[in-house]
Amino acid sequence: MYGISIWARLRRRCWRMKVVAGLDVGPDGISWVVLSGSQTRVTAVLCAESLKPPATCVGHGHISDPIEFGRWLRHLARDRDLGVDALVAGVNDVLITHHQITLPALLTPEDVMFQLTAEVNATRTHDADVQIDFAVAPSSEPADVLVYQVYAVPRAHVAHAWEVARGAQFNLQCLMSRAAAASQAEKTAHWVQPSRQLQEAPLQYPIAFGLAIAAWMTPAFNFLPHRDWAAKKARQAWWIRVLVCFVSGLGFVYVCLGMVSVAMDHRSAQTTTSDMAALIRAHDAAKQEHVQLALAQQRALGHRQWLLQRQHLQESTLAWSRRLSDASQGVWVAQVRQQGLHWTVQGEALSSDHAQQFAARLSALTIWAQPPQLPVLKLQRVGSGRGSSVWTFLMEADLKEGSR
User: Fold this and answer.
1) pLDDT tens by residue, 249-299
2) Cα 112 to the chain's mean position, in Å?
3) Is the four-CA dihedral 55, 59, 62, 66 of positive or negative sign?
4) Is domain 2-93+157-224 classified as CATH 3.40.50.970?
5) Cβ atoms 327, 372 nearer than 8 A
6) pTM of the entire structure?
7) Fewer CB within 10 Å, N or C, the chain?
8) What is the rounded CA–CA span in Å between residue 365 and residue 367?
9) Where are the domains of the chain?
10) Which CATH architecture has domain 328-399?
């Protein structure tokens, strides 16, 4: 009966309806489209209209107070009993920049994100703090390099969307381009379930409809940390599998010991010496299996400790990578290499002061077992003749080992 109850709950969860709002803030006004459906298909349009928020939170064609606007949006959804649980927002395409960057093919995903961010920041003269998303582009380059299509948006606009979702108490699921949303609305005409409402909504509010429909599809570019979310979900699935294996093993051992105990009680009055020896052997086999299960549990705990240490190392690496990107004014990073806890950075600086200030800012982090040092710092002439000179440097540092 317990297994049937669990199966029923899983089926209800799989068939649970979801309600998603697509919010479009454009130069002509603010509109939203609210869609509902199963986990795999849109079935109805709950709302499609232009919004008239209070003047205190909207001004000059944009949202001036995102928290207050989000609260107003939450009350609007509650008054109309829409039950919105997710939000997809759009970004003005004027704010999005496109870059094409070539990197070595053997870089880890973390190194790819770090290097792409650094390359994009180096090309920007203002709003250098950006949020990026990327995809591998087809190219005729050699097999040892990859060409990435990179789209970047100022991080302040991403934070703006998070504040709207926080005020509305909606789950911000995607942040994408308004042009991509309009294109997606056109392509999904035959994908959604036929209904008069679903046919009229794309014509009245195509961008808002395209944003809402993105909750059931995978957009080409999403400026939210969707890769981190996917990695977290994979780690949770791994722990669930470990727990299921552990509980199954315990149940198997319990059943084996119970069967041996019942057999011994049933035949205790007429058991011969040979029969008793056979029962003892069975009992010893069950004990050995129990020992093997305990060893398997110890290995699982060891895997957990290893995963926590790697997670600590990853957090330290990300903190150091973000600081490395923030502190790169006057410094060009040519190569970053990590071997375990040891980091090596090679690059060029406009002056020795830039390189030393660069190392000092990185040393301010509390993640170092051995703070960044500059064992190599030398002046090198660029070009031939009387060309300009730059300072080349080699920086080395060791991260702290996780203590959790």
Assistant:
1) 888 888 888 888 787 766 665 556 666 777 888 888 888 888 888 888 888
2) 14
3) negative
4) no
5) no
6) 0.54
7) N
8) 6
9) 2-93+157-224, 96-153, 231-318, 328-399
10) 2-Layer Sandwich (3.30)
